[in-house]
Amino acid sequence: MSKDSLELLLLRHAKSSWDSSAQTDHERPLNDRGIRAAATMARFCKNRDLLPDRILASDSCRTRETVERFIETANWDGPIVFTTELYHASLEMLIDIARSHGEGSQRLMIVAHNPGIEELTSLLSGETIVCPTATLSQFRVASSTWTDWRGQAIEHLGTWRPKELVD
Is residue 1 part of a domain? Predict the structure, then answer.
């Protein structure tokens, strides 16, 4: 990664359980498949030298658990911001959060929910991209600072799903 370019990693939270005793959608934890998928994506990022400088994530239980499994598996210890603003955030809100909380990082990871993640991934890539749980997309963005970023990408560097990766 060039020192004067920024990269955005978009990660949809891993698969959550519908069979838990959680009282609300916000409280749903990961299921076993989700736990494995979060670890798979962490190993992928570590092996490909794609670890972020900072993680911004929804504060829902399933995104917190996705991030926890990710950082544990990747042995990553960078700054993390959990925020309610990313819980079911629109693509516009995802851009705003990157702009307001991304400074100081060249490679920023956002862990959030659909439809926002899928809509932003599709917007930045210029094509419709389906993002099932634990899908990761990487973009080089069209800005030298996060505060100046207006939601454009220079290059879509890839989209990966846990089922497609050899673990």
Answer: no
The CATH number linked to 136 is: 3.40.50.1240
pTM above 0.70, yes or no: yes
- The number of domains in the chain is 1
Output the tens digit of pLDDT for each of the chain's 167 residues: 555 689 999 999 999 987 766 678 898 899 999 999 999 999 999 999 999 999 999 999 999 999 999 999 999 999 999 999 999 999 999 999 999 999 999 999 999 999 999 999 999 999 999 999 999 999 999 899 999 999 999 999 999 999 998 65
Q: What domain range is 129 assigned to?
A: 6-164
- List CB contacts of 39: < 8 A, sequence separation 6 or more: 69, 70, 72, 73
Any domain includes 33: yes
